[in-house]
Amino acid sequence: MSHDLEYYLAVPYMLAVESVEKPDGDWVRRAEYPELPDCYAEAYAAVDAIEKVEERRIQCLKDMLERGEDIPVPRPPLITGEPELDRDRLGFARWLVDEKKLSET
Question: What is the value of pTM for the model shown?
Answer without folding.
Answer: 0.71
